Fold:
Amino acid sequence: MMLTIDTSGTLSGLAITDGQRVLAELQWQSGRRHSEQVLPQLDALCRLVEITPQQIGHIAVALGPGSWSGIRVGISIAKGLTLATDATIIGVASLDAIAWSHRGNECQAVIALGRGRYAVATYPATDWAPGSISATNVAVIEPLTSGPLLCDSDTAAAIHIVHPTVTPHIIWPRPLTYAQIAAALLRQPAPTPFTCEPIYLGDPVQR
Structure:
């Protein structure tokens, strides 16, 4: 069984898959209330498919970039469950999840970081391995001329204020997308050691 946890944005998500099927999937607008909502929703999801945490063998979790507090909540829950169940934890970059449905085509994935900054990653038309594309922190987005700009609707609204002529393609990655990427990592002939550290590209707060 694989559990997927995505708390990288205002739209949170959970999924349980068994390698062949999606047993349950849930997305909801959590805003910034990840810490109080995720565990109750996870408990309800496990009850729905009648499994216990001990039956979970893998945990895929969103690493960001995105909501710093949300990412910390998701990773903390994933690490806590790993300690309790001996499950394997697999971190998945949020920008990879945004670009996943467009793999094989050049595209640009963007997440708003706040304070007028964006996390941007450019994906080639050739096949790419999850985790192989680095993101950069930028203040000005320069869209590709040969591929779409992909982002969630919150980021699209932020982009439109500064770049009114840019028309992004809206994508809300499903929890299933993170599960598919984690499964692809597991299938690699010699997978790199799985790590679970947040991808944080934000600028430090000046005091």
